[in-house]
Amino acid sequence: MENSARSGLLQAIAAYIIWGFMPLFFKQLVDINPLVVVAHRTIWAVILLIIVLAIVKRLPEYKIIFQTPNLLRALILSSLLIAINWLVYIWSVQNDHILAASLGYYLNPLLNVVLGFFILKERLNRWQILSVILALAGVLVLATGSLSTLWISLILAGSFGCYGLVRKLTPVGSIPGLAAETTMLMPIGICFLIYTQFVGGFNGMGYSTKTDIFLILGGTMTAIPLLFFAAAAKKLSYTTLGFIQYIGPSIQLLLAIFLYNEPLTLPYAICFTLIWIALAVYSINGYMLSKSLAQQSKI
Description:
This protein is mainly alpha-helical. It has helices spanning about 1-20, 20-25, 35-55, 60-65, 70-95, 100-120, 125-145, 145-170, 175-200, 210-235, 240-245, 245-260, 265-299. It has 13 helices and no strands. The radius of gyration is 20 Å and the shape is globular.
């Protein structure tokens, strides 16, 4: 069990480090329309994920999704949500709004609490309520000083939060589910790429050797961190994963400020401070609840 937890910890850290450094990857495609990038990302992800499913002998799980109307409807919705998330994220990276993107992913765990309260009817304790209030205060501060980029943070947090909720309520494995989602997006991507060939004005495959390589690698960059995360989720507690998930947006924040020289304005500084305090309250409360439940289980 100790070895399993250790390997799970390493896998989770690897997943969030890859997600954290993702801006470095998409900055290499700055001359490519985000729609083109998303189209290629879905196509190459489908190919890689189906190969992975075949290797681990889980293709039947993937096939049964398309034979089950309830699963299919749910994953059509989740595929649209993740496509919106990918599109806005890639656009924000290409247009020097990594700071706004990182804020969106900082907001995500707190949004999950709100969604759990309103949709799943989960009860909130006073510390969770305090966390949500602090996060809301941070967003309101940002709205007064950086309204032009607030939509990026809210769409990223909202789309990923709702995506997570749909996937939580849908009884499918993470890898077969993502394979099904990207499969459903693939025809749209192929049609769009064909359209760009007739219309012109869109850079894509053939623009340069470097571009071709990075467009193909987009599928790998989609699948690999998810494979790490899926493996880690089976070995670690939800609370531990909750702490580790802040690695990703923290790396993005540092990249935005120190590598890409995005200005950390006063509204952003106040907002991030309130969000960090909210996350600290939320995480400590989660840890204490987890510890209390563990002690009760031993009695």
